[in-house]
Amino acid sequence: MPSSRPPYRVAIIGTGGIAHAHAEALTELSARARLVAVADVDRTRAAEFADRFSASQVFSDPKDLLESDEFDLVHICTPPQTHAPLASLVMQAGVTALVEKPTALSLREMDQLAAVQEETGSRVLTVFQHRYGAAAVRLRRLAASGALGRPLVATCETLWYRPDEYFDVPWRGRWDVEGGGPTMGHGIHQFDLMLSVLGPWSRITALADRQSRPTDTEDVSVAAVRFEGGALATVVNSLLSPRETSRLRFDFEYATIELEHLYGYREEHWRFTPAPGHEELAALWADGHEPDVTSSHKVQIEAIFDAWDTGREPGVFLSEARRTLEFAAATYASAFRGVPIDAGELTGDDPFTLSMDGGAVPWEPVKETLV
């Protein structure tokens, strides 16, 4: 969406791997945004990053960055355990924070962020870019319109492969840094997209295990889910699957919609099958295809700018991100307690509101203590 306003002023905190996806997206959106400053504890890395992406200011301390200039948006691309503290710092500076998933490592941290939002009037948004692919937007619109009938059955699978060597990085595979295994760090994108289509979930029954990898966290989880609207779903998150794929399937009364991709989808990765007697829905699904649009950081960041340009609130809102994080917490709580968990059940000082492991992991840790 074209805009006559000056480019939005943007900064990035954390210049590791995922920050490059953010900076490349901003480069593609250069008519609408300008990367002004970057910060990283490794100043050399930050300087190299700034040089590559034409940012004029480099800092090793996020506080110095926030005091240096006025920004419209600050991207937080640091390891997960720093997300909530940095998002609070950004909001207290009067700036919107865009945080890589997971927004926080616990429901308690999410509620603390909500308090900072209320206090400052600033916002924290979460990167769930798969919500913003054109086909996902269209699916939500059709589902909400009732054209597809009631949602009945769904499957959500993140079947990825990470070898043992992947966990040689000291902070990987740790509850205190990543918050969890594939449920928190990998499959969360797929089940967030599922939740955005099916709406609020009501009950989860789950299993989780460390089958093979040298981690303190799980390397696989499986959940059966009931939604408030009546749909039933299965969710699998794995780092043990040599043929990697990310799959979603939605069976509505009048159509099946399927998605199979890996780390980002295009129109070609979706399949629409109308139920007998509802063949006219295929044309409705085909209307508005955008084959060149990939689900990506760019489409979500662009959607943020579009919202601001038109006076709307951008997503993904903290309340929606909390629902997704509660889904992860309930998966762990059900798996480690051996009972179903209802939405809203994890409250107060419940151990699973304080940390994703809930102090109840049934296997021994293997990762060395970080100094």
Features:
single chain, alpha/beta, 8-stranded mixed β-sheet
Describe the structure.
The structure is a single chain. The protein has 371 residues and is of the alpha/beta class. The strands form two sheets. Strands 13-12-11-7-10-9-8-14 form an eight-stranded mixed sheet. A six-stranded parallel sheet has the order 3-2-1-4-5-6, with helices on both faces. The radius of gyration is 21 Å and the shape is globular. Helix 6 packs parallel to helix 9 (188-198). A hairpin with a 2-residue loop joins strand 11 (240-252) and strand 12 (255-261). It contains 13 helices and 14 strands.
Task: Explain the layout of strands and helices.
Elements lengths: L7 E6 L3 H12 L4 E7 L3 H11 L3 E3 L2 H7 L4 E4 L6 H10 L3 E4 L7 H14 L3 E3 L7 H12 L5 E11 L13 H4 L3 H4 L2 H11 L2 E9 L10 E8 L4 E7 L1 E13 L2 E7 L8 E5 L6 H6 L10 H13 L8 H20 L3 E2 L8 H4 L17
Parallel strand pairs: 1-2, 1-4, 2-3, 4-5, 5-6, 7-10
Antiparallel strand pairs: 7-11, 8-9, 8-14, 9-10, 11-12, 12-13
Class by alpha and beta content: alpha/beta
**Spatial arrangement of strands, main beta sheet:** 13-12-11-7-10-9-8-14
Spans with pLDDT under 50 lasting ≥5 residues? none
Percent range of helical residues: 25-40%
Q: Describe the sheet with the most strands.
A: 8 strands, mixed
Q: How many strand units?
A: 14
Average predicted local confidence, pLDDT: 95
Shape: globular
Number of helices: 13
Strand content: 15-25%
Q: Tell me the Rg in angstroms.
A: 21 Å
The N- to C-terminal Cα distance equals 48 Å
The topology string of helices and strands comes to EHEHEHEHEHEHEHHHEEEEEEHHHEH
